[in-house]
Amino acid sequence: MxxxxxxxxxxxxxxxxxxxxxLYKTDLRDHRSGNLGARNAGAVIGKGAFLxxxxxxxxxxxxxxxAGRYFGYPEWAVALGGLLVICGHxxxxxxxxxxxxxxxxxxxxxxxxxxxxxIAFSVAxxxxxxxxxxxxxxxIFAYLAYIGSVFYFNEVQRAWPIIVAIILIxxxxxFDFQQSFGEQKWKRS
Length: 189
Fold this sequence. Notes:
The protein has one domain. It is an all-alpha fold. The chain is 77% helix and 0% strand.
């Protein structure tokens, strides 16, 4: 199981945005937010780069969850693999901890780990976004719905690492949340 945990973290270190940037001869760390994630790739290079990065990063999450289940590990260990792949994505060793923010990888994990939790996440996001008109702020409600569904279905013992991953992701997005909230206040005034 230790090999699975190490492999999950190392897989997280494979940052799709870095490779997409190489493909387009652009170091995304030098542009806009400097973040190696799908959003920055899309803003700097274009929609194709966003899609490639999003799919590549989401695939990491899918692979880790499916691999853990293939080897028959308990669900808490599979969830821990999910947390570790997100940690590897956010804090890659080879880039001195300057990675992405984990949303796309979380989407891959979320869809694969438990479909009911993923549905709660998606429903909350799509219910809130028409009113808030901010994907960033709508994610807060989506993450809370995911956590709420974990508690509702009494799956905390199995899914606690994914809750930790959500807290990490939200912490990494704290400035994005502040900026989006400020923009919402400005639009209303």
